[in-house]
Amino acid sequence: MKPFLTQTHFIGYPLPKDLEDTITVLRQYTASRYNCHSGHSTLPHITIIPPFTLSDEFTTDDILKRLEDIKFKPFTSFVEGFGSFSDRTVFANVKASKDWDNLRNTVFKAISDMGDIKKDKRPMKPHITIANRDIPPNKAPEILERLQTYNIDKEIKVDRIALFTRVGYKWVLQSENIIFL
Q1: Per-position DSSP letters for the chain, written without gaps between them
Q2: Domain boundaries, the chain
Q3: Cys staple from 45: which of 12, 17, 23, 27, with CB 3.0 to 4.6 Å?
Q4: Which CATH superfamily is domain 4-180 in?
Q5: Is the pTM of this model over 0.85?
Q6: pLDDT in tens, 141-181
Q7: How many CB atoms lie within 10 A of CB 98?
């Protein structure tokens, strides 16, 4: 894997505004109560293709063109409760499905030759990160317990994907980088 700052792009599903607002409130809670700030400068999203380094022979516009050419039927998914990846990441759980796997595979196929893009062979575990990497030791279970008081169950329509680009130390989503399926 390339060093963090050499990674230039990632592809994700940008959340509907109401869900984005809810996740932002939960991130603010973990920041104020547990001093978790890692990743909070990136808009809440569901990662489809994790950060990668674009080859010098391609541009952001080249990626966008490939994404615009994707033919994929929108689908419905569900955000249901919370989970964690050990003590490292706390997230809102998104119900896994073949639709998510198929979307990831379709996007990967469209751009796999454009840079240092690795295909994960495991089924996709869609999620929306709330706290990541800077969770105090042994606090993930407590954070999860407190988050359970929030009713986050929501149906979402997966009808768009977005190309996030690195600007300095931040991942940025520009409106023109949102592609509707």
Answers
A1: ---GGG--EEEEEEPPHHHHHHHHHHHHHHHHHH---TTTTSPPEEEEEEEEPBPTT--HHHHHHHHHT-----EEEEEEEEEEETTTEEEEEE---HHHHHHHHHHHHHHGGGBS-PPP-SPP--EEEEEES-PPTT-HHHHHHHHTTS---EEEEE-EEEEEEEETTEEEEEEEEEEE-
A2: 4-180
A3: 12
A4: Cyclic phosphodiesterase (3.90.1140.10)
A5: yes
A6: 999 999 999 989 999 999 999 999 999 889 999 888 899 98
A7: 11
